[in-house]
Design brief:
The structure is a single chain. By secondary structure, the protein is mainly β. It is about 10% helix and about 45% strand. Helix 7 packs antiparallel against helix 8 (about 405-410). The radius of gyration is 30 Å and the shape is globular.
């Protein structure tokens, strides 16, 4: 008995320890709220982000340690305490680090615009299929929204809702290559990400930077002996906060009350279905990366292979991506010329399912079964004589579909092959002047199909009908095949000048940018009544010969390429590491606009004062 009491005491103490909610506030060096600060329980590894007022709430025990991290500030670790106020301090080393600002780099302490940098350690800390998912909550002013669908592109909003007609997707610059997403890059291949957020930083990209710029630098081989490294993880995914679903008794009680009848639905129902449980399962993720690198004084090479797999929480959703990347650097003529080559290959396979199944799961009644006893799919049919759900019921009491049947009969497969990369050459003309030429391009090939068993879906919606009752004029099934390809490229040429004289530092860049995008073609074709066996899903095997409008059989679309040509210049001045000035101008022409409005000028001027370097501040 004593042993039992001691065990119960220990158990209750443990439950009390892990069940506390610790709340507090994060402030900057001036005592102002610091929204977006990442707060991590170092024991459970659970992380949360501070809200707009710097407030946070996290589950932690009294003896747990909390780590506070924000870009540009020192990471601090404190003991968890309810009501704690945390004061973050600027990191002096951050001011000396190099940040990519577009066609060049700057010291973090010499930037007059708004730029956030996320390092590799922050990117790989959170296992994710996309690097953008991994940096969620780590940069102020950057809102990242994910729907957790395997393979889906996260929505990134930088300081606002974007442009009226140009969407809200930012431009990605991957080692000088212009792109529309990061889904073709493995998170482990990234060295750091710089996010340009304000007009001063974005002006050098003109209209392309209307929704912000995300600059990605991939990892490069360093001067060392041959090295082989492995990095990987295996994980499981759960619904963090499940929606509480009503059971059969509650559903009957509330509906009878609303209808003013105690007998419309019988309280003794034969079925009690939790639809959310029926369409979801534990998700699984795994990633394996092998990297081989090595180099000498003049040659550096790196090769990386990555495989990522994910089984989604929604039944049937799957995603797989295989990445192969090669990054090499060569120096010739005593280092005066540097040639860099980056090549990436991404192969993806995706099996999506309709997210509307969640909506149907929330709406469908718990007294409806997944399947009736005879194996037919459940539908909301009520027997007026008994008030119970039955397959022979005559009263259909809602028009919501069966979400389990919806997922079972939805069959879509997509495959994509992306080859992208760039080659650049740098010529050191003098000690202070350097010429850079960079060419990057992207090829995308995609194909997919959707198979819809129309007759089976009809039978699922009408469980009292048989195959012989199906209308003869209606197609038995539908097969759609899709093909898509696109090609884009950009070519940058610019001259950089950098000179430091005593306390004066001058940097200047002048150059041009030429790009072609939207060079794409899509083709889709649809046929009916193909064989039901999946290995015979071919358009040629259709036996449905009823005449159809051509637009329902095949669709072909050839896009008009969009050409952009721009000239840009930027000048930066710094005095004594305290006073900063920057001016940028870009003149750009875009073929998307009418000829009379094709050219535009994008200027920007900014100034800065590094107070922390003043004697009176120290």
């Amino acid at each position: 008995m004593k042993k039992l009491l001691v065990f119960l005491f220990i158990l209750s103490s443990f439950q009390f320890a892990v069940g506390q909610t610790i709340s507090g506030q994060v402030l900057d060096e001036n005592g102002l709220p610091l929204p977006g600060t990442t707060v991590t329980n170092t024991v459970s590894q659970v992380s949360v982000a501070a809200d707009l007022d710097g407030n946070f709430s996290i589950t932690a025990a009294d003896d747990d340690k909390l780590s506070f991290t924000f870009v540009g500030y020192k990471t601090i670790t404190l003991q968890a305490k309810n009501g704690m106020k945390v004061s973050m301090q600027l990191s002096s080393t951050e001011l000396e680090q190099v940040v990519v600002v577009g066609f060049g780099t700057k010291k973090a302490g010499a930037i007059t615009g708004s730029v956030a940098q996320i390092k590799a350690s922050e990117i790989t800390k959170t296992p994710a299929q996309s690097a953008i998912q991994a940096i969620q909550g780590k940069a102020a002013g950057v809102n990242i929204v994910t729907n957790d669908e395997p393979g889906a592109n996260p929505t990134v909003i930088i300081r606002g809702l974007g442009t009226v007609l140009g969407g809200r997707t930012p431009l990605y610059i991957i080692d000088g290559l212009e792109a529309t997403s990061l889904n073709g890059i493995a998170p482990g291949d990234i060295e750091n990400i710089d996010i340009l957020k304000d007009a001063s930083s974005l002006a050098i990209y003109g209209q392309k930077g209307a929704n912000g710029i995300i600059v990605v630098n991939t990892k490069k081989a360093k001067k060392n002996k041959l090295q082989v490294s492995y990095d990987g993880f295996v994980g499981r995914k759960f619904i963090q906060r499940e929606v509480e679903m009503a059971d059969a008794y509650r559903y009957v009680y509330y509906n009878n009350t609303a209808l003013g009848s105690s007998t419309y639905f019988n309280f003794d129902q034969p079925y009690n279905t939790n639809w959310l449980d029926e369409i979801t399962d534990t998700g699984e993720t795994s990633s394996h990366q092998i990297s081989i690198s090595g180099g000498s004084e003049n040659v550096n090479m790196q090769f990386t292979a990555t495989n990522y797999k994910e089984k989604g929480i929604l039944n049937g959703t799957q995603f797989e991506r295989t990445n192969l990347s090669s990054r090499n650097q060569f120096k010739i003529l005593d280092g005066k010329i540097t040639i860099k080559q980056n090549l990436n290959l991404a192969i993806t396979n995706n099996s999506p399912k309709p997210l509307s199944a969640f909506t149907n799961a929330y709406k469908q009644s718990p007294i409806v079964p997944v399947r009736f006893e005879n194996g037919r799919w459940g539908v909301p049919l009520r027997d007026p004589a008994t008030g119970q759900v039955a397959i022979n019921g005559s009263d259909r009491f809602n028009n919501v579909g069966n979400p389990a049947a919806q997922l079972f009969y939805y069959n879509e497969q997509n495959k994509n092959l992306a080859v992208f990369g760039n080659i650049s050459a740098e010529l050191q003309i003098t000690k202070d002047i350097k010429f850079t030429s960079n060419f990057g391009s992207t090829f995308n090939w995609a194909k997919g199909f959707t198979y819809t068993p129309s007759r089976n879906i009809w039978l699922a919606e009408n469980p009292t009908q048989e195959i012989a009752d199906y209308p003869v004029s209606n197609p038995i099934n539908t097969l759609q095949q899709r093909r898509y390809d696109d090609y884009s490229w950009n070519w940058d040429n610019f001259i950089s000048y950098s000179k430091t004289i005593d306390k004066h530092t001058i940097n200047a860049t002048i150059g041009m940018n030429r790009s072609t995008t939207n060079n794409a073609e899509s083709l889709s074709a649809t046929r009916w009544n193909v064989p039901e066996q999946s290995n015979y899903w071919s358009l040629d095997l259709s036996d449905y010969n009823t005449e159809q409008p051509p637009g329902q059989i095949a669709q072909n679309r050839v896009e008009t390429p969009v050409v952009s040509l721009a000239y840009f210049a930027r000048a930066d001045y710094e005095f004594d590491n305290k006073y900063l000035f920057s001016a940028t101008v870009r003149r750009e022409g875009n073929s998307r606009f009418q000829e009379s409005n094709r050219w535009g000028v994008f200027p920007a001027v900014s100034a800065g004062w590094v107070l922390s370097n003043e004697a009176f501040f120290k």
